[in-house]
C-alpha cells in the first residue's frame, strides 16, 4: 500500500503569538516549530502502523520553504520512508492543496492522510480541497482507521454520535484524536532520518484565491471577579442576572 | 447574482447554527439587494422548509445519506444555476467537509471559520493560532465561500414564506457509506452545548464526578474534561477539550480543578464567559477567567448545585 501523509510545520503549542510588519506577519523570533500534532500523533503514526501490518511505503509531503526541513526530518525519524517538500511559501489552504494535488495526481497513492486541522491556520481546508482536486472520496475527522480488501473503514465522532463509515480506496482521510498513540523517535530513528531521501520539488503555478491581510490579538480580558468559597452559591445568581448565560 | 446558504435540515428541529447561517446570508443578500436561496437535503417536511427565512429552498430528496462528494456536486450545481456570489456554510462537521470541496471545485476563495460579516473593505475575520489571534482575510475571487463558526453571530431571522423546489440533478453514487451509528454518550453533545461543566486532574479521581454531573444536569450543560483526565481513563475520550481534543465555544464554560495549560485554553478560549474553580490561587486559568472561586472542588460543588436547584425552582 502506498501511503502519503501531509505534514505541516507549525509553531510549538506553547508559542507566544506575536506579529511583525504592522501585524501582517507572524513573529517567528524565538519560536520553535513542530510537526502539527494531528499530522504527527494521528495521521503519520497510523500510516506507519498500517504499513507495518500490511507492507508498503509511507511518504510525507510538506508545502513550505527550507525552514520546514528540520520538521520534515522529525517525521522521518518517527518512521516515514521518504519525504517530499514542495518549495513555496503557501498563500492559503487552496495553495497547499493545489501544490500537493499537482505532485500526487499521477503517483498512485492508495491512501492519503491529513490532519484534522493545523494549529496555526485552523482551516480544516486542505484535506477536503485536496480530495476534490484529486476526485477522491473523503472521510473527515476519523478517530479510528483500518484498511482491508481495498476498502477503508473508519470511525468518526459527529454530533455526539459515533459513526462507522466505509469507502473504496484510493481515499483521503483527515485524522483526529484516538487514531494512534504518540511515538517518540529513538536514537536509531533520528540517525536514520538524516540520510532518508528528501526530495525538493519546484512549485506549480497556482492562483491565489484568498489572502490574509492582517492579524490582530484579542482584546485583553477584564479582571476576574473573585467569589469567596463560602459564598460559592452566589456565583449562580451572578451567572443568571449579570452574565446572563444561564 | 444571489446568496446561497447550505444547511443540514435533517432531524426534528432547526439547529441554531442553521439559523445563524441564514441570518448571515440574509444580511449579505440585503446588502447586495439580491435573493437568498437555501440548499438542503433529506426529508424535512416542505412546510418546515417554507417557514425558513429564505426566498427559495432547493431540497435534494432521497439524499439523506449523501457523502461530501455528492453534497459538493449539489451545492456547486445550484450555485452555478443561481449565479451565486456568496455560498455560506456552517463550520460544523458537515460544513467543514463540504465547504472546502465546493471552493476547490469552483476555484473560489474560502474563509473557513468566519466570525464576522465582511467589513467595509470586504475583509472577513476568523480565528487563527487556536483562538490566540484573529486574521482578516480577503477573498480574491468573484464567487466567495464562507463557513461560519457556530455561536459567532446572534440569530436574527424572521419567519419566511419560501418557495420549495425539489432538486432533480444527478449527484452520482455515494462512495462513503455509513455502516452504523451509535450514541457516544448520554446527555447533550459537547459541540452543541451552550453551557459546559468540565473537570481536570484536581477532581482527584473518576469516583468524584457525581457532583460535577449533577451540576451539569441542573444547568442543562454538557460535561467535558482535560486531556490527562481522558488519557487516564477517568472520563471518555470524546469529552477531552483543548488543542488536541474538541474545540468548543459555549456561552458558559465552568472549569473545575483544571490548571489552565495553554493547550487546554486553546480549545475553550472562544467561550463567552469562563468560570474557574481551583484551590490554588496561582493557577494560570484565573487569568483567563471572568469569575473565579478559590476552593476545594468537592466543597464548592455542593454549594453550586444547591444554588442551581434553587434558581431552577424559581423560574
Ligand atoms: C502538544 C500538546 C497538546 C496538548 N493538548 C491538550 C488538550 O487538548 N487539552 C488539555 O486539556 N491538555 C492538553 N495538553 C496537556 C496540557 O499541557 C496540561 O498538561 C493539561 O491540560 C493539564 O490538565 P489538568 O489541568 O487537568 O491537570 P493539572 O495541570 O495537574 O492541574 C490540576 C489543577 O487542579 C487543581 N486542584 C488540585 N486539587 C484541587 C482541588 N481539590 N480542588 C480544586 N482544584 C484542585 C490544581 O491546583 C491544578 O491547577 C497538551 C499538551 C501538549 C504537549
Ligand atoms: N503547508 C502544508 N504542507 C503539507 N500539509 C499541510 C500544509 N498545511 C496543511 N497541511 C495538511 O492539511 C491539514 C489541514 O490543514 P488546515 O486546512 O490548515 O487546517 C493539516 O493537518 C495537514 O495535514
Rounded to an integer in angstroms, the radius of gyration calculated over CA atoms of chain A is 21 Å
Order of helices and strands of chain A: EEEEEHEHEHEHEEEEHEEEH
The residue-averaged pLDDT of chain B reads: 95
Q: Helix count of chain B? A: 8
| Oligomerization | heterodimer
Number of domains of chain B: 2
Q: Looking at CATH, which topology of chain A would you report?
A: Rossmann fold
Order of adjacent strands in the largest pleated sheet of chain A? 11-10-9-12-8-1-6-7-13
Task: Please identify which CATH superfamily of the largest domain in chain B we are dealing with.
Answer: HUPs
Q: Level of helix content of chain A?
A: 25-40%
Low-confidence spans of chain A: none
Query: Distance between the terminal alpha carbons of chain A, to the nearest Å?
Result: 53 Å
Proper CATH architecture of chain A: 3-Layer(aba) Sandwich
Q: How many domains of chain A?
A: 1
DSSP strand content of chain B: 25-35%
- Poorly predicted sequence stretches spanning 5 or more consecutive residues of chain B: none
Mean pLDDT of chain A: 96
What can you see in these coordinates?
The complex is a heterodimer of chains A (246) and B (315). By secondary structure, chain A is α/β, with parallel strands linked by helices. Chain A contains 6 helices and 15 strands. Chain A has a 9-stranded mixed beta sheet with strand order 11-10-9-12-8-1-6-7-13, sandwiched between helices. In chain A, strands 2-5 form a two-stranded antiparallel ribbon. In chain A, strand 3 and strand 4 (25-26) form a beta hairpin. In chain A, helix 3 crosses helix 4 (126-133). The longest helix of chain A is centred in the N-terminal third of the chain and has 18 residues, at 37-54. With 315 residues, chain B is of the alpha/beta class. Chain B folds into 2 domains: 2-166, Rossmann fold, CATH 3.40.50; 190-314, Rossmann fold, CATH 3.40.50. Chain B has a 7-stranded parallel beta sheet with strand order 5-8-4-1-2-3-9, sandwiched between helices. In chain B, helix 3 (68-82) packs across helix 4 (93-106) and helix 5 (209-218) runs parallel beside helix 8 (297-314). The mean pLDDT of chain B is 95.
Amino acid at each position: 500500500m502506498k501511503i502519503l501523509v501531509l505534514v505541516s510545520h507549525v509553531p510549538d503549542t506553547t508559542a507566544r503569538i506575536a506579529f511583525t510588519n504592522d501585524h501582517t506577519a507572524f513573529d517567528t523570533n524565538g519560536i520553535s516549530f513542530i510537526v502539527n500534532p494531528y499530522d504527527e500523533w494521528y495521521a503519520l503514526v497510523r500510516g506507519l502502523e498500517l504499513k507495518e501490518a500490511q507492507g508498503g511505503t509511507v511518504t510525507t509531503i510538506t508545502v513550505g520553504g527550507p525552514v520546514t526541513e528540520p520538521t520534515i526530518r522529525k517525521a522521518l525519524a518517527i518512521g516515514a520512508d521518504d519525504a517530499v517538500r514542495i518549495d513555496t511559501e503557501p498563500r492559503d489552504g487552496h495553495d497547499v492543496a493545489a501544490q500537493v494535488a499537482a505532485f500526487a495526481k499521477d503517483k498512485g497513492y492508495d491512501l492519503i492522510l491529513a490532519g484534522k486541522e493545523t494549529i496555526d491556520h485552523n482551516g480544516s481546508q486542505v484535506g477536503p480541497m485536496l480530495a476534490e482536486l484529486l476526485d477522491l472520496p473523503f472521510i473527515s475527522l476519523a478517530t479510528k482507521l483500518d484498511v482491508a480488501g481495498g476498502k477503508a473503514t473508519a470511525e468518526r465522532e459527529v454530533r455526539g454520535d459515533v459513526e462507522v463509515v466505509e469507502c473504496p480506496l484510493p481515499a483521503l482521510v483527515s485524522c483526529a484524536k484516538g487514531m494512534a498513540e504518540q511515538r517518540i523517535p529513538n536514537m536509531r530513528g533520528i540517525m536514520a532520518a538524516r540520510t532518508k531521501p528528501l526530495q525538493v520539488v519546484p512549485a506549480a503555478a497556482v492562483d491565489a484565491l484568498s489572502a490574509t491581510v492582517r492579524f490582530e490579538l484579542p482584546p485583553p480580558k477584564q479582571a476576574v471577579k473573585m467569589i469567596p468559597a463560602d459564598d460559592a452559591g452566589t456565583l449562580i445568581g451572578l451567572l443568571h442576572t449579570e452574565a446572563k448565560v444561564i | 447574482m444571489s446568496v446561497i446558504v447550505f444547511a443540514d435540515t435533517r432531524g426534528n428541529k432547526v439547529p441554531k447554527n442553521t439559523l445563524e447561517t441564514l441570518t448571515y446570508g440574509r444580511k449579505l443578500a440585503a446588502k447586495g439587494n439580491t435573493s437568498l436561496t437555501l440548499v438542503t437535503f433529506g426529508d424535512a417536511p416542505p412546510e418546515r422548509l417554507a417557514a425558513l427565512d429564505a426566498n427559495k429552498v432547493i431540497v435534494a430528496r432521497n439524499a439523506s445519506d449523501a457523502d461530501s462528494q455528492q453534497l459538493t456536486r449539489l451545492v456547486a450545481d445550484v450555485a452555478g444555476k443561481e449565479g451565486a456570489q456568496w455560498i455560506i456554510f456552517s463550520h460544523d462537521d458537515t460544513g467543514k467537509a463540504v465547504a472546502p470541496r465546493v471552493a476547490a471545485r469552483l476555484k473560489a476563495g474560502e474563509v473557513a471559520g468566519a466570525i464576522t460579516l465582511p467589513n467595509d473593505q470586504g475583509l472577513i475575520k476568523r480565528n487563527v493560532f487556536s483562538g490566540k489571534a484573529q486574521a482578516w482575510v480577503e477573498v480574491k475571487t468573484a464567487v466567495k465561500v464562507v463557513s461560519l463558526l457556530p455561536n459567532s453571530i446572534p440569530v436574527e431571522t424572521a419567519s419566511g414564506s419560501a418557495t420549495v423546489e425539489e432538486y432533480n440533478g444527478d449527484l452520482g453514487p455515494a462512495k462513503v457509506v455509513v455502516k452504523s451509528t451509535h450514541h457516544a454518550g448520554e446527555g447533550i453533545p459537547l459541540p452543541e452545548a451552550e453551557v459546559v461543566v468540565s473537570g481536570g486532574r484536581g477532581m482527584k479521581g473518576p469516583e468524584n464526578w457525581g457532583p460535577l454531573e449533577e451540576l451539569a444536569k441542573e444547568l442543562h450543560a454538557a460535561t467535558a474534561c482535560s486531556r490527562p483526565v481522558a488519557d487516564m481513563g477517568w472520563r471518555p475520550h470524546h469529552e477531552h477539550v483543548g488543542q488536541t481534543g474538541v474545540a468548543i465555544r459555549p456561552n458558559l464554560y465552568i472549569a473545575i480543578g483544571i490548571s489552565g495549560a495553554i493547550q487546554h485554553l486553546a480549545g475553550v478560549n472562544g467561550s463567552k464567559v469562563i468560570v474557574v474553580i481551583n484551590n490554588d490561587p496561582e493557577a494560570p486559568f484565573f487569568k483567563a477567567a471572568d469569575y473565579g472561586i478559590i476552593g476545594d472542588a468537592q466543597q464548592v460543588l455542593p454549594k453550586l448545585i444547591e444554588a442551581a436547584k434553587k434558581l431552577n425552582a424559581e423560574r
